[in-house]
Amino acid sequence: MAVTDTTEMVEMIDPVTGEIIDQKQLAEQLLAQAKAQGMSLVGPGGLLSGLTKQVLESALEAELTEHLGHEYGAAPLGMNMRNGSRSKTVLTEIGPVEIEVPRDRDGSFTPVIVPKRKRRLDGIDQIVLSLSARGLTTGEIAAHFEEVYGARVSKDTISRITEKVAGELAEWSSRPLDPLYPVIFVDAIVVKVRDGQVRNTPFYVVMGVTTNGERDILGIWAGDGAEGARFWLQVFSELKNRGVDDVLIAVCDGLKGLPEAITTTWERTVVQQCIVHLIRNSFRYAGRQHRDQIVKALKPVYTAPSEAAARDRFAEFAQAWGGRYPAIVRLWENSWAEFVPFLEYDVEIRRVICTTNAIESINARYRRAVNARGHFPNEAAAMKCLYLTTRSLDPTGHGRARWVVRWKPALNAFAITFAGRFERTTH
Predict the structure, then answer these.
(1) Count of C-beta atoms within a 10 Å radius of residue 232
(2) How many distinct helices (H) and strands (E) make up the chain?
(3) How far apart are CA 33 and CA 37, in angstroms?
(4) What is the dihedral of CA 22, 25, 31, 37, to 10 degrees?
(5) In whole angstroms, what is the distance from residue 414 CA to residue 46 CA?
(6) Nearest CA-CA partner of 192 in 358, 385, 360, 387
(7) pLDDT score, position 329
């Protein structure tokens, strides 16, 4: 889910002279004036609160003028006219601001910038969603607003704000996808869900790398821990129905039934076992005192120049460690078919597909968010948290740019190794 940076400053034009206003100079003048008058920058009665009040009230007056068709003090065009104002406190990004909302005589004026019965600006909703994506509970968010902004926001209000993303989540989960992804990564994150009793629920994340080298979270699916080929076939069929015609390589952690479902959906896709996960799984059978030695002994296997060389190095490993840890040897033998594919490719392709580090960095963000909550009342609440975290990834776009640069050498290697398939779907 790529997000672009839209923070570029917009030029302001003086309506009288037509010249561009120097915003930095204007800000410095306002700050100097506030300092001279002993006015604080933020807080009630501060400079920013005053400016926000003036801007909102001016905008409301302009809206009412357009609604009535005449300027303030001018002769009315009909029976309807200005009818004073009423006080209203709205919550803004800088805290509560009390404004005067103008009224008309027949009550037909409907403001847009500060709608009727609305007590907060849209920017507040974005702050709530951002804090929720970072794992804060509704109570913690309410405490944050009271501490930082001096404003009281109820837990129910915060819950209603976050519930608004339900429709956005449904739209995101069914959006069209690219016809080709050179690589997709499949991994799981375990979330505690309270469904009668607290249980560990896996949520599966599928991340794709586009032909431009951009990261794209294709979807998130909840499971029950007993998923097999049928579950995975539904997941990949959904991706195919959303437009994914071809995947060159799928990197995963040997989840049950997953390789068969991938090749059923995309016949020519190469399924690659994650090497890091394979090594981690080996540690389950090894004593802690031998782990460094085992890693050192396995390195010649997964860095071998060819499958034949890897087989020879593995035979040496089995001879040295098979007697003490036969389960590790059996683990690697059972995973051999999904382990060896990357040995056939260029070093640039090897570098990006031999591990799921690309998706592990995203999972780290997910874990921070879910661990802060402890557990969730249901799967829908957990999914909402994961989606909010997804939409908050890299809001400035700087990480996205670094990601693209890092993937360019691998994409060039993909274009050569998979000539024909790469160009056919990326025209």
Answers:
(1) 25
(2) 18, 7
(3) 6
(4) -100
(5) 57
(6) 385
(7) 92
pLDDT tens per residue across span 342-380 = 888 888 888 787 766 667 778 888 888 888 777 888 888
> Cβ distance 176 to 243 under 8 Å?
yes
Closest alpha carbon to 181 in 353, 345, 317: 353
- DSSP run (H or E) holding 312: helix 307-321
User: What is the 3 state secondary structure string of 150-193?
Assistant: CCCCCHHHHHHHHHCHHHHHHHHHCCCCCCEEEEEEEEEEEEEE
Instruction: For residue 264, give the amino acid letter.
Output: T
Measured from the Cβ of residue 200, the count of other Cβ atoms closer than 10 Å reads: 11
For the cut 90, the answer to whether the pLDDT of residue 176 exceeds it is: yes
210, 2 in Cβ contact below 8 A?
A: no
Burial class (CB in 10 A: 0-12, 13-18, 19+), 398: exposed
> Which residue, among 230, 226, 224, 219, has the nearest Cα to 184 in the 3D structure?
219
- With residues binned 3-state (H G I as helix, E B as strand, rest as coil), the percentages for the chain, rounded to 5, are 50, 15, 35
Structure tokens at 263: 């090749």
CA 55 from chain center: how many Å? Answer: 33
HEC string for 56-72: HHHHHHHHHHHHHCCCC
Residues facing 198 on adjacent strands: 194
Give the closest residue to 353 by CA, choosing from 221, 247, 212: 247
Instruction: Give the Cα separation of 306 and 273 in Å (integer).
Output: 16
Mean pLDDT lowest for which of 24-38, 51-65, 272-286, 366-380? 24-38
Longest dimension (CA), the chain: 100
Task: Give the SS3 label for residue 364.
Answer: helix
Q: State the pairing for strand pair 180-195/197-209.
A: antiparallel
**CB contact at 8 A, 177 and 218:** yes
Is the separation of the CB atoms in 7 and 398 below 8 Å?
no
The amino acid present at 96, given as its one-letter code, is P
